[in-house]
Design a protein that fits this description.
Blueprint lengths: L4 H11 L11 H21 L5 H23 L5
Organism: Coniosporium apollinis (strain CBS 100218) (Rock-inhabiting black yeast)
Keywords: Membrane, Transmembrane, Transmembrane helix
Membrane topology: Multi-pass membrane protein
């Protein structure tokens, strides 16, 4: 039986398993911190809404909320 390229990739990947950047034990802390940052940034943006504050406060707040929500969902055991 000859070896296929896909089989070679499969065998090479088994030598080094995937290690996530944020471990399972730290997901709750990271998610809570991101959601707290999102709350503060969106509050500041709501107090002083302007076009110049959109990239400074609005975009980071929405990114922090998005990633924080996903981390919190994963941390409490709801897998998406």
């Amino acid at each position: 039986m000859s070896s296929t390229p896909l089989h070679d990739v499969w065998e090479a990947a088994s030598a080094n398993p995937y290690q996530p950047i944020v471990g399972k034990n730290a997901q709750f802390t990271v998610g809570f911190t991101l959601l707290l940052i999102a709350l503060v940034l969106s509050g500041l943006f709501g107090l002083n809404r302007s076009l110049t504050n959109l990239p400074v406060l609005g975009v980071p707040a929405s990114l922090a909320f998005g990633f924080g929500a996903v981390y919190m969902i994963c941390a409490v055991g709801v897998y998406v």
